[in-house]
Amino acid sequence: MTRPVTCRRIYEDPSEQDGKRVLVDRLWPRGMSKDRADLDKWLKDIAPSTDLRHWYHHDPERFDGFRARYIDELRDPEHEEAVRYLRDLAAHAKVTLLTATKDVDRSEAAVLAKWLNEPEG
C-alpha cells in the first residue's frame, strides 16, 4: 500500500511527521546547511528541466502550463529511475517532498506529490 506523499518547504523545521525527507529541487537551497536540511535523499533528477524552470519562473499565471509540461517530463525515460525510487519509497514509508520555493502549492513538489498520489500518476 502506498502512503500519501506530502510536500513542504525545506526551511521549516524537520518533523517526525515528515517520514522520509526528499529534496526535489535541482539547486541546493540558499542558506541551508546539510545538517539542518536533515535529508534522506536529494533527488535532483526528478526536478523540472532547467528550461522549464526558467520558463515558469514561479509565475502563478503559468502554473497550469508548468504542471502539464512537468508531468510530461516525469513520463520521459530520463526520469524513470527517479520516479521508480519515489514510488518504491512511498510504498514502504511516509514521504515528504521538500522544496525551497516560497509558494509550495505552486511548486514542482506539489505537482509531483499530487501526481504520485494519483492511481495512474
Please tell me about this protein's structure.
Helices cover 38% and strands 13% of the residues. The longest helix is centred in the C-terminal third of the chain and has 13 residues, at 80-92. The chain is globular and about 35 Å long. The mean pLDDT is 93. The protein has 5 helices and 4 strands, in the order ββαβαααβα. A 4-stranded parallel beta sheet has the order 1-4-2-3, covered by helices on one side. With 121 residues, it is an alpha/beta fold.
Q: What percent strand?
A: 5-15%
What is the helix/strand order? Answer: EEHEHHHEH
The geometry reads as globular
Helix content: 25-40%
Distance between the termini: 15 Å
Q: Total number of helical segments?
A: 5
- C-alpha Rg, in Å? 13 Å
Strand order of the largest sheet: 1-4-2-3
Uncertain regions spanning at least 5 consecutive residues = none
Provide tags for this entry:
alpha/beta; globular; 4-stranded parallel sheet; 5 helices; 121 residues
Please give the structural blueprint.
Blueprint: E1 5-9, E2 20-23, H1 34-37, E3 41-42, H2 50-56, H3 63-74, H4 80-92, E4 95-99, H5 108-117
Parallel strand pairs: 1-4, 2-3, 2-4
Helix pairs in contact: 2-3
